[in-house]
Structures are given as structure tokens and as C-alpha cells.
Amino acid sequence: MSDFIDPESAVRLIQALDDGQLDYLFQTAHIDYSERDGLAGTTLAMGLPRDAVSHLVTATRRAQGLTILAGAWGDYAAWITLSAEMVELLHEIDIRSNFDFYSNSELPEDEVRALQNQILIEEVLPLGLARGEISPTNDIELSHARNGARRMLTEGTEPTTDYERWVQRFFDLMKRLPELAEEPLTVHRLLELHAMLALDKDSGGVLRTTDVIQSQGIGLSTDGTGAQAERLMSEMSAIAAYGTGRQKPFVHPMVKTIVYFYWIRRIQPFQVANALFARLVIHIFEYQQGYPTLPLTPLTRTAASEWAVPPPGTDVPRFDATTFVIKRLNLFLNAYLSAETELASATHRYRLLCERFKGLNINHRQARILDEALSVPTTVFTIKRHALSRGLAYETARQDFLQLVAAGYLEQQKRGRLFEFRLAQDAEKRLLRELM
User: pTM for the full model?
Assistant: First the structure.
């Protein structure tokens, strides 16, 4: 777009604006901000240069916009226009802020824990895993790495690769969110959190001292070169003030969450794990701001590639982030909707499970074990996996299996120091008869 508008075009532009011929452009902006097709019609219908109309609309939006990001050194800033579309999205998110897995279903607590655990596992698997980083170089290796990490988290085995170690570390920290959210996100706390996350103790919580990142680490490939090292402490202070203070005019917490995430990624304060660190920080911030369930929803399972993309226009001093923020707010809303759907599906499956096994003198956990065994008769069960997936005490998980062994439905074998359980011989036929 040219910065120069010739006088004749300027006069015609003002006349069209005064006559109300451009009203629909501004109305559209406040309904669907990303809709810009109307600008093309101004050239044919009114003889107005598209660049001139676009210049006017952009300048008006900027003048009306709310600054949501201002770099510590004043060298960049971003704003949004509070369109009707954005306000509606924020409202839809806010009315779901009280969504809770426990109070919104008839599931027993261990069933809810199992569902949350399953969602969280699938959430952490894509984090930090991209082609060219760590080890996977193609789709087959990518799938293999994810399956290995999924097995590790499900069965409670030790990580064997750097990727699995990052996944395990992030997963463990996510399980500690209520505890981590107790302290405000000051600069000192931010450095502490990175130290908790980093695998290398020497680099954890230590700001970069060079302008060149020595190692890509986790998820840095799309975020540019980062801020100059001498500016990092100022930027971190500005980020901390942004999260702990109240802006005037008011900036909605969900908008601040988005800014938080991409601001940290923009400056890349550490040598490693900046994207993972940004993700951890925003989940703590969400929890602190009254959205405790949002971090445990399917936020990136199907949208990891969208979250990886930085805001457009970040290479210029000031940029309009409205469309970008609207798209991310949609991701937050979809995460809540997906969580509601998954909870409803889990509740439906639980009802079917209870109905199927109601004739047997067993609890719902044992019913689930038998249901899985009947679906795949070769399945091998362990006490550790059962306890881990459902948040059970070891003895409770152990008794679930021993009672099924005593009833003749399962058999146990010792493998090394562990007991393994599988469907007993002829138990399948017996169960199918009893369940008829």
C-alpha cells in the first residue's frame, strides 16, 4: 500500500465518506474484522483507489484501537479493534470459565482424572516436536516419537530420548498448575519457572548473554532471532508488569494470554525452550485469571500448527493484531467446546459400561479392565499403569486386579519385579455368557 494519496483521490475519498458510501466498510469491520473483500469493490463502483480506501480504514482502526503490546524499548507495538466479533468471542469464553470436569458430569472422580490425564497426554505430545528439531525428520519418525512418548506417560516408564524428557518435564509441571499458580508472575518467578522446565541446570533460568541463540532447542524455528541480549531484562520486566498489573484502558485476560505467549516467543529470552516456556507461563496465567480448566482442554491437539505461527506484521514498528487475536480466541473457544464434547462422550461410554457389567459383582474400574480385555484379549495390564491413569493409590489399583483374579476373570504372572495381568483362559467365553 502506498503511503502517498494524491489530492484528487483524497478529496473524492472524503466526499464518499461524507456521503455515507463507505459506511458498510466500517460496519463490516465491527462484525467480521477479517472481511476485506469489500475494499475491492470501491475501485469499480466509486472510482476510488483501493489503496486509498484501505489506508483510510487502517488509519481509522488504529486510531480507535486498543494497544495490547508495547515493547520495553518502545521499538514495537500492537493494537486491536474491539469489534463485535471479538466481544462476542470473549463473552462465549467467559461464560465457560466456570466449566469444570467434576461438577459437569456424573462420572466418578477417578473417571474424571482418567479423562483429564488422557487429554493432557495428547496435548503435550505435539509440543516441541517439529521436523528438523530434536530427532524426527519425517512423518514416520514423527509418529514413532509420539507413540513412544505416549507409552512412556501412560505406563510410567523412564524417558529414553531428549524429546521424551522434554515431554515428561512439561507434563509433570502441568500436573502442578494449582501449586505453580500460587505465586505472581514476577521476573524472579519467571526465571524460576524456566529453571524448573529446562533439562540443563546450567541454562535453566539464565537469560541469553549473546544475540545469537547457540542451539535451536524447542520450538524456536518460527520466531525469528529474538531481542538483543542487552534488552532482555527490560523486556522481561515489561512482560512481568504486563501480567501482574492492571492496564488502563482494561485489556481482557484472554487477550493478555495471547500477548504473553507471543511476546515471550518474540524476544526469546533463553537459549532453549522459549516456546515451551511461553506455553507454561500462559497456562499459569490462565489459572490465575479464573480459567482453571482451560489449560486441561484440547487446545492444540488439532491446532498446533496455528499456534506455531507468529503474528503477521511483527517486522514493522506497529501492527494491527485484531484478526490474529480473533483467530486465537476462536481456538480457546473451540478448546472449551471440545472439552465439553469429550466429557459428554466419556459420560455416555461410562453409562454403557455400567449397563453392560451391571450383572457382575465388580466396580466400574474393574468393569473397564474387563471391557478392554474383551476388546483385545492379548492386552497386558499392570498395577502401575492402572494407578497412574486414574490417580489411584497403589493398593486400590492392586485390589482391583486381585479381586478379578480371585473371580477367575484374570490371571497374573510375575515378570521381573512386576506383576502382569491378562484375561484368564476360557474367561472370555464365560464372560460373554454372563453378560448376555
Answer: 0.83
